[in-house]
């Protein structure tokens, strides 16, 4: 079989590209240093962590500021649901700190509950909370697909 020297440059480029892909893959895998105690809030994980903390703070403020005796039926249901979610969020923080493997499922559940809790607002308030629903859907996708989440929560 006769070799064509004009194609040798393409073969060389392809061989180097294959080597550089291997290096990039190794660099990408080492990019997720999850040994640090701060790895649980590294990268994009800081945003859902802050969102959970704000959710806890908002529930505490709701419980302090609102008298449940003065609430209507729908508002009372929201009030009681918020108290239940408060304990669920505390459980999520505990699981988050312990780096348990179940955290992505809990976060997906929390975001799904947020979506479901926004649906009655369409009928009661007459407006579409599309921004809140879209943000929750984005974070559900993140916790399903993220390699950082899979690398961080392994216990």
Can you give a write-up of this model?
The structure is a single chain. With 155 residues, the chain is mainly α. Helix content is 73%, strand content 0%. It is built from 6 helices and no strands. It has helices at residues 8-30, 46-65, 73-98, 103-124, 130-145, 147-152. The N and C termini lie far apart (56 Å). Mean pLDDT is 78; it is low at 25-30.
Quickly count the helices.
Answer: 6
Please give the radius of gyration in angstroms. Answer: 24 Å
Runs with pLDDT <50, length 5+? 25-30
Q: In total, how many beta strands?
A: 0
User: What overall form do the CA principal axes indicate?
Assistant: elongated
Backbone structural class: mainly alpha
Span from first to last CA?
Answer: 56 Å
For the sheet with most strands, the description reads: none
Secondary-structure element pattern, one letter each? HHHHHH
Q: So what's the oligomer here?
A: single chain
Summarize the structure.
The chain contains 6 helices and no strands. With 155 residues, the chain is mainly alpha-helical.
How does the SSE layout of this entry go?
Layout: H1 8-30, H2 46-65, H3 73-98, H4 103-124, H5 130-145, H6 147-152
Helix pairs in contact: 2-3, 3-4, 4-5
């Amino acid at each position: 079989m006769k070799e064509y020297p004009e194609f040798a440059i393409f073969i060389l480029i392809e061989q180097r590209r294959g080597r550089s892909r291997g290096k990039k893959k190794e660099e990408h895998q080492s990019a997720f240093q999850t040994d640090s105690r701060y790895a649980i809030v590294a990268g994009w994980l800081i945003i859902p962590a802050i969102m959970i903390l704000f959710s806890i703070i908002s529930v505490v403020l709701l419980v302090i500021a609102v008298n449940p005796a003065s609430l209507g039926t729908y508002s009372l249901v929201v009030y009681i649901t918020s108290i239940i979610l408060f304990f669920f969020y505390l459980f999520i923080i505990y699981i988050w700190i312990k780096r348990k493997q179940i955290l992505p499922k809990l976060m997906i559940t929390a975001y799904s509950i947020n979506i479901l809790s926004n649906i009655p607002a369409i009928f009661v308030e007459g407006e579409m909370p599309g921004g809140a629903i879209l943000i929750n859907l984005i974070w559900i996708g993140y916790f399903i697909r993220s390699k950082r989440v899979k690398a961080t929560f392994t216990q």
